Amino acid sequence: MSHTHAHTHPHTHGHGHPHTHAHSHAHTHAMPRRQFLTAAVGTAAGLAAGLSHRTSFAAEPNTPESGQAWDILIRGGHVVDPSQGLIGRYDVAIRGGKIAQVAPTIDPAGWREVIDVDGRIVTPGFVDLHAHVYEGVSHYGINADKYCLSRGATTVLDPGSAGAQTFPGFRKYVIEVQATRIRALLNISVTGMLTALRGELEDLEHANVERAIQTIEQNRDLILGVKVRCGRGQSGPNDLVAVQRALEAAEAVRLPIMMHITNTVTPIDQLLALLRRGDLLTHSFRRSGTPESADEGILTSEGILRTSAGEALERGVLFDVGHGQGSFSFDTMEMAMRQGVLPHTISSDVHAYNVGEEGPVYDLATTLSKFLYLGLSLDEAVRRTTATPAAALGWDVQIGTLRVGAEGDVAIFDMLDGEHRFVDSYGGERVGRQRLVPWRTIKGGRTYLPQW
Ligand SMILES: [Zn+2]
């Protein structure tokens, strides 16, 4: 990976952001000769992994080989790890692709790579519960390594880009190839999200429970639940039956479902009532709370939390953000927060229509920054992009944490102070004081520069 500087930043174009790059130079003290040895060891390890796994591509980034070759010390960061209640200046050491030590100071001698981060924010690699990364097949698909891994999200959950018919390709040509750790929710529609021309559940024959169960059983290592999209453009009038089928499949394999809501045909109260403890509602804070949007989300036309939404929260249903192109409203979020309702998980819903020059999503770090504007502390916000989404996946021992022995996933950010213009999915604007900007991401013993 070439260490070119990442000074240009599409977010700063035309938005009047101060270009605060006082810390923009990498202090990466790599020793050239050892780096050469590392490369040799890495190749040998990759070959060995290739022999013992189904595919060498998948084995190498997903299971870093152990040994000194992968050792990295991150020095002098402001660590925020809500899983352990850690906030403050700590050094973080990675050995064999796992977190080896977190301490106020660690001797810098003998590490392959020492990265001085000069007080930058250091967190566990982010876990984005909503990212569409079936590039080249789903019309939403974008490159995971560019938009997720390189910007701090070491693990992503792709919610339903693939269905039973299209999952094998997702596995083979995307998940096993990308360095980002990708897991998926299987769309209850066999097609997944192929085209904007027709909703994947407009033909109910596509919602095939048997095919879903079979595909999940064959891909238990990658599929962590079932996705169903309810909305006029996705399911038309089939939303209720589709949810029932998603639940039937999920119950058979004992996994959660994630329900997407956008202007549903079936009244939203009826759909929310079906969600169980551990199930996820995504796009939770899409516009609602006004007379015109009363049918679209968790707030009534008077802006009050619906009884059905309150009951879902009490049952243990998780409210996910899933910002996206049309699914996050500052107004709605502020109304919900005034009633004590916060998202459990902050996810981006990055996809092909919201990561370009006009956003408004760009990446998970930007989505998190919007919640700093909304009043969450950095610790509260980072919890919602690390520990809580990891727990939602039943995976919180290995990811979303800097506990010793966990995956060596670390995200390093600049915190830019100033005036930052944030835009929601409806053109709503706010000016925040802080913006978290990816600086380096480490996964599997490798360091990734942000790609814009
Ligand atoms: Zn989505």
What do you see in this structure?
- The chain has about 450 residues and is an alpha/beta fold.
- The chain folds into two domains: about 10-125 and about 405-425 and about 430-450, Urease, subunit C, domain 1, CATH 2.30.40; about 125-390, Alpha-Beta Barrel (TIM Barrel).
- Helices cover about 25% and strands about 25% of the residues.
- It has twelve helices and 16 strands.
- The strands form two sheets. Strands 1, 2, 3, 4, 5, 6, 14, 15 and 16 form a nine-stranded mixed β-sheet that branches. Strands 7-8-9-10-11-12-13 form a seven-stranded parallel β-sheet.
- α5 (about 210-220) runs parallel beside α6.
- The longest helix is centred in the N-terminal third of the chain and has 21 residues, at about 30-50.
- The protein is globular, with a radius of gyration of 21 Å.
- The two termini are about 15 Å apart.
- The relative contact order is 0.16.
- Residues about 1-70 have low confidence and may be disordered.
- Zinc ion binds near residues 130, 132, 159, 324 and 349.
Task: List the defining traits of the structure above.
single chain; 452 residues; alpha/beta; Urease, subunit C, domain 1; TIM Barrel; nine-stranded mixed β-sheet; seven-stranded parallel β-sheet; globular; binds zinc ion
